[in-house]
Amino acid sequence: MADELDRPGQTPADEGAEAHLPSPTIWPFAFAGAVALILLGLIVNMWATAIGIVLAVVFGFLWIRQVTREVRGEPEPVEAPAPVAAEPDEEGEEGPARYERSKFLEGATLGLGAAIGAIVTLPVLGFAVAPAFVGQEYPAADLGPLDNYPEGEWQIATFTSKPIDGEVTRRTAFVRYNGLKDSVPSFSILSNRCVHLGCPTQPQGPPGEPRKVETSTVPVELTPTQPSGYGCPCHGGAYDVEGNRTAGPPVRALDRYEFSVIDGSLWLGSPYSVSEVDGEGADAVIVKYRAADPGVHVDGPEQVFYPIVP
Ligand code: FES
Known about the structure:
Elements: H1 2-6, H2 12-19, H3 27-43, H4 46-67, H5 101-129, E1 141-145, E2 154-160, E3 170-181, E4 184-191, E5 202-203, E6 211-213, E7 220-225, E8 229-231, E9 238-240, E10 245-247, E11 256-262, E12 265-278, E13 285-290
Antiparallel strand pairs: 1-12, 2-3, 2-7, 3-4, 5-8, 6-7, 8-9, 9-10, 11-12, 12-13
């Protein structure tokens, strides 16, 4: 009766209902962990999936066994009484704080949920996003002996940069030998990728007869041409013969390639971006920028809108 006075509004029936609540159990969390292991294993390793299935069966059985204990007439295990915090002593110092079980379960549920969410989503995110940031660089390509490039003549060089990956790695560059500058061979090598949205640009001029050139890396097809500039069929972007934008929506000049001459052959290196080209051929003044995506300004005030280029 004294207890009833301590809890106004609570009836003896309520007390009885509270007494029959199932005792807390860890098996649901263990079962959830096993399911997470199964999902992780589907991505990473089938052995992890097999172990997860076994654990899920075991933990699921233990969970069902626990919740059906009352139906099966098994007595609930009696819990040891929780240690009670020491009362403040005469000098006002408190004993160890009591840590409520409900708080522990709440924290454990949230923590376990976060861990399972991370285990399931992070590998998927990693596999989806990481390829865009790694292994995207072009391998160097041998474009053949220098005598395939008469001075002052443009050649359309087409080749498959990673034959194992197929036609999607097909690349085209516009190559012109500018003669010697300070006793060093000079080349202008433009990417054919439009810097508006990436469509392939075309030389505006009659193409010659294509020919195959065997090299130390991949076969290259060279087609001589006499362009007055380059045009993009997608949205009408136009460039002059040095790659400077002359009309349409592109935001900068055509990208260019580094090059080197090794044992008498022209090697194509990494691409780089250019805002504009001042001058022509070997005398052109070019400021190089890190290779940027189409549509990205590499200089001027607009560049602040493109702070990250993967
Ligand atoms: S992609 Fe070339 S103009 Fe749009």
